[in-house]
């Protein structure tokens, strides 16, 4: 079953989006991802099969990108 994770980030430039694309694009457990840079939280939305949000947070932080998992209810 797909999981959907929402992250608050500090991504504001296309160069940062490309960095994230390189990181997430190589992960086979991630089915889809996208940014909403118009949102005040610069939301990253990730659809995955079986992934822990902390993994994405840590990956992005290693690249100097602030990333915080946001809890939500459907």
Description:
With 74 residues, the chain is of the alpha+beta class. It has a single domain, classed as Alpha-Beta Plaits (2-Layer Sandwich), CATH 3.30.70. The chain is built from two helices and four strands; from the N terminus they run E-H-E-E-H-E. The chain has a four-stranded antiparallel sheet with strand order 2-3-1-4, covered by helices on one side. The longest helix is centred in the first third of the chain and has 12 residues, at 14-25. It is globular. The mean pLDDT is 92.
Number of domains: 1
Query: Could you estimate the helical fraction of the residues in percent?
Result: 25-40%
Largest sheet: 4 strands, antiparallel
Could you name the CATH topology? Alpha-Beta Plaits
Rg result: 11 Å
Can you name the CATH architecture?
2-Layer Sandwich
Strand order across the biggest sheet?
2-3-1-4
**Strand proportion:** 25-35%
Topology:
Blueprint: E1 3-9, H1 14-25, E2 30-36, E3 43-48, H2 53-62, E4 67-70
Question: Top keywords for this entry?
Answer:
74 residues; alpha+beta; globular; Alpha-Beta Plaits
Task: Summarize this entry quickly.
This protein has 74 residues and is α+β, with helices and mostly antiparallel strands.
